Amino acid sequence: MSLMKERVAELFRAQFGEPAVIVRSPGRINLIGEHTDYNLGFVLPAAVDKAIYIAIGPRNDEAIHLYAGDLEESFTSSLHDLKPTAKQWPNYLLGVADQLEKNGHRLAGFNAVVIGDVPLGAGLSSSAAVECATIFAMNEMWSLKLDRLSMVKMAQKAEHEFAGVKCGIMDQFASMFGQTGKVIQLDCRSLEYTYIPFNMEGIRIILFDTGVKHSLASSAYNKRREECEAGVALIQQKFPEVKSLRDASIEMVETCLAGKEVAVYHRCKYMVEEIDRLQKACTRLEQGDMAGFGEYMFETHEGLSKLYEVSCKELDVLASLARDCKGVLGARMMGGGFGGCTINLVKEDQVDETIAFIAEQYAKIFEKWPQHYIVAIDNGTSLL
Ligand code: GAF
């Protein structure tokens, strides 16, 4: 039995008795295709070997008793009173219960304990992992017979309605559908997906954590989404067939948006380039050309920093230090942005030098050491 499983079970027993179900749901990385999901483009995420663990059990009343083991915090609510709370972490569980109720599943009260080793606020999507763990556990406990895709959609809706982030589908999809050793090429419009083997021979995936957590990240994220929608509305005046930036070409962006509001122009330019870049990067991946793949990652960082403006100085420094390392094949900021981690593809025989160089140079500039995580690609949500 895994240590995490044992620990979450112990914490549950200490308060509530024997858990009915224990579930593991992982955090995710994304190789390329950033902010493309809500523009109905493609993404290339994978689940990792850092996860959220939930132990859950039913109650005989309508009460909800939650305990966050790592924070040592309790929260109590009721099925009659499902609404977002000022404290963030309970929202991921309450939001899922609310979605299930709204989809016609009559729940009973429940007890739940959550722990994990996904770094919080680091851009590895711990929130999606909690949502997926919760819905998967409830599906098992009450035999709701939901398929994985329905659970992903409800988990995403929970994030919209209870966490207030109008996220795309990538994070919940990656957590739920991850497979060891493979990245998921997901078409966020059709939701068709293919697994591409990610050849880790001679390569390590290293995340460097800025430790920066931007308090306005969710409002800035929602603003980016609005700017893309504003761009689509302008393009549609001339090209009504364009339903999302997925359908737009760079020529359309230049014709309809150059000279208009600069933020809208820049967001859309980045987006159309990134959707195209992901396709080219996947071709490199399939050819086994990891250096070529990595070059596209550096380009993505430039676009996210200069055009999409979701980077910050710490992320820019980490990406630029990585550029200076001969052991790094590709690097860029990862996830929503405004803090969190960079993702780096590093040659295995140069891992130590790379970590030492980047950490020392970063500490010289910011007077703090960046955390780093070496991650492996792992399976998605599962019953333990
Ligand atoms: C966050 C969101 F939750 C995802 O849907 C995605 O948009 C990502 O930012 C950026 O690619 O993680």
UniProtKB/TrEMBL annotation:
A Pfam family of this chain: GalKase_gal_bdg
Family to which this protein belongs: Belongs to the GHMP kinase family. GalK subfamily.
GO MF annotations, alphabetized: ATP binding; galactokinase activity; metal ion binding
Domain Galactokinase N-terminal: 10-58
Any one annotated GO CC term: cytosol
Domain GHMP kinase N-terminal: 91-179
Matches recorded under PROSITE patterns: GALACTOKINASE, GHMP_KINASES_ATP
UniProt xrefs under Gene3D superfamilies: 3.30.230.10, GHMP kinase, C-terminal domain
GHMP kinase C-terminal domain span: 285-363
UniProt keyword Lipid biosynthesis present: no
Annotated keywords: ATP-binding, Carbohydrate metabolism, Cytoplasm, Galactose metabolism, Kinase, Magnesium, Metal-binding, Nucleotide-binding, Transferase
Protein name: Galactokinase
Keyword Ion transport: no
Enzyme Commission code(s) on record: 2.7.1.6
UniProt-listed GO biological process terms: galactose metabolic process
